[in-house]
Design goal:
alpha/beta; Rossmann fold; eight-stranded mixed β-sheet; HIBADH-related; HIBADH-related_NP60_sf; binds NADP nicotinamide-adenine-dinucleotide phosphate; single chain; oxidoreductase; 6PGD_dom2; N-(1-d-carboxylethyl)-l-norvaline Dehydrogenase, domain 2; 292 residues; 12% strand; NAD(P)-binding domain-containing protein
Length: 292
Amino acid sequence: MKSEHTETPVTVLGLGRMGSALAGALLAAGHPTTVWNRTPGKADALVARGALRADTVADAVTASDLLVVCVLDHAAVTALLQPVAGQLAGRTLVNLTSGSPEQARETAAWAAGHGIAYLDGGIMTTPEGVGLPTSMILYSGSPEALAAHRGTLAVLGDPIDLGADAGLASLYDAGLLGLMWSVFGGWLHATALVGADGVAAGTFTPVALRWLTTVGGFLDRYAGQIDAGHYPGDDATIDVQLAAVEHLLHAGRERGVDGRLPEFHRELMAKAVAEGNGGDSYARLVDAFRRP
Ligand SMILES: NC(=O)c1ccc[n+]([C@@H]2O[C@H](COP(=O)([O-])OP(=O)(O)OC[C@H]3O[C@@H](n4cnc5c(N)ncnc54)[C@H](OP(=O)(O)O)[C@@H]3O)[C@@H](O)[C@H]2O)c1
């Protein structure tokens, strides 16, 4: 059984939707949890569950050697933490606020200059998913800090170690959100297409989810091709897929469905064919993104 006295004390700065979920997960796992929020009332529910309220940022920082910050953006992190750099020295700062890779590297350099161990993170779930072992939280930055606190951070979600470059968690996060929006867009387009013939989204989606599993297998295969710079076209060529996308465009036109997404895919495929690469596999289109 977990004892309150053996778990690492943690401070959470920022108790919006996400920060409250993070603090709640730490409390639920028995960590002595100190909380601070700019609008103090947002701490009340956590304090009622056993969290310790800090009245000032400085009190919050000195309460624990491990600090988690999750506020709106990079500017808020900077405004919050720069005045307490002295108190942060010798502690570990885990920044789960979304930002750019450049901002993460800037904060990492600032932290290094003040003797603060720094981890940047990307939370790949919504507040409801915090604390579930199926939810990924990406980390990059101090390997020593991650090694020392992996067990505590695992309470928030499965920690994914991206290495010592503090910018990588934000870079992965941005790329993965782009992937999510592309999948949402493709699914919404397909749902509108089949919906025009009376198929409910709830009927179509289980089939779409099976298809995404198959597509995931293609990604595994194509990743190796991209790293090798070799696109053998041994499964389906771009020529074949360019012909197939015409069926999608035709079906959409007949049903009055916005065709801009598949038109973009057709444009990329047609460019590859025009460059003499129609016999290659689809992964060749990475060049279109690398050299727009
Ligand atoms: N929600 C999600 O699903 C999700 C998922 C992944 C990542 N994230 C990231 O998590 C971070 C927080 O998101 P959220 O959903 O918790 O947002 P939220 O509910 O709007 O909360 C924002 C938090 O930031 C604080 N804040 C804003 N400006 C501040 C400042 N200048 N100084 C001090 N505190 C400030 C707010 O304090 P007040 O209460 O005083 O306004 C509040 O605690 C964001 O970077 C977001 O991108 C969120």
